[in-house]
Amino acid sequence: MTSSRLNRRSVLLATVGGGAIVGLSALLRPFSGKAEATEGDFEISLTPAEWKKKLNAEQFAVLREEATERPFTSPLNKNYAKGIYNCAGCDLPVYSSEAKYDSGTGWPSFWQSLPDAIGTKEDNSLFMRRTEVHCRRCGGHFGHIFDDGPEPTGKRHCLNGVALTFVAAEAGGTTSG
């Protein structure tokens, strides 16, 4: 009986200790600072200093450092006018109002992008696996794609409004997010 208790206790302590070590190592892992926009060969490639001149502080943080704007703060979240959403970094048309819907999350959401407008990569930050979405022309970060969207795709492109500008179909005017 003592041997059985000792074995159970040893297994329990080893399991708890191993879990603590894994968790602690993740917390103590040196942070590399701010994330950067997707690296790669893009048609438009500027230095960080050039991007800072081109973008406002919020746009730079989201598009170039993969920050996330606070939910329910973008004027584009409740915009349902007909038109096209462009990348705020390079003005590439990336989403149509035809694919926009209210996901209730507080961020502009779409069930699909325009053809050949976006790129994706795996994002393992925040202890989960997600699909990051970015501009295929400049690599600017838009947000993430989730598998809980409406038909016909079942996808939810959850985007930072500050990473987009809106061009109304009729007026031709631009609205920043």
Description:
This protein has 177 residues and is an alpha+beta fold. The protein has 2 domains: 30 residues; 129 residues, Metal Binding Protein, Guanine Nucleotide Exchange Factor, Chain A (Beta Complex), CATH 2.170.150. It contains 3 helices and 10 strands; from the N terminus they run αααββββββββββ. The strands form 2 sheets. The protein has a 6-stranded antiparallel sheet with strand order 3-4-8-7-6-5. Strands 2-1-9-10 form a 4-stranded antiparallel sheet, with no helix packed on it. The longest helix is centred in the N-terminal third of the chain and has 27 residues. About 11% of the residues have low confidence.
Radius of gyration: 21 Å
Structural class: alpha+beta
Q: Separation of termini?
A: 68 Å
CATH class annotation of the largest domain: Mainly Beta
Number of strands: 10
Count of helix runs: 3
Shape: globular
Average residue pLDDT: 83
Tally of distinct domains: 2
CATH architecture of the largest domain: Beta Complex
CATH topology of the largest domain: Metal Binding Protein, Guanine Nucleotide Exchange Factor, Chain A
| Percentage of residues in helical conformation | 10-25%
Instruction: Outline the biggest β-sheet.
Output: 6 strands, antiparallel
Let me know the CATH homologous superfamily of the largest domain: Peptide methionine sulfoxide reductase
Give me the strand/helix succession.
HHHEEEEEEEEEE
Spatially, the strands of the biggest sheet line up as 3-4-8-7-6-5
Report the uncertain regions: 16-35
Please report which band the strand proportion falls in: under 5%, 5-15%, 15-25%, 25-35%, 35-45% or over 45%: 15-25%
EC number: 1.8.4.12
InterPro entries: Met_Sox_Rdtase_MsrB, Met_Sox_Rdtase_MsrB_dom, Mss4-like_sf, TAT_signal
Catalytic activity: L-methionyl-[protein] + [thioredoxin]-disulfide + H2O = L-methionyl-(R)-S-oxide-[protein] + [thioredoxin]-dithiol
Protein name: peptide-methionine (R)-S-oxide reductase
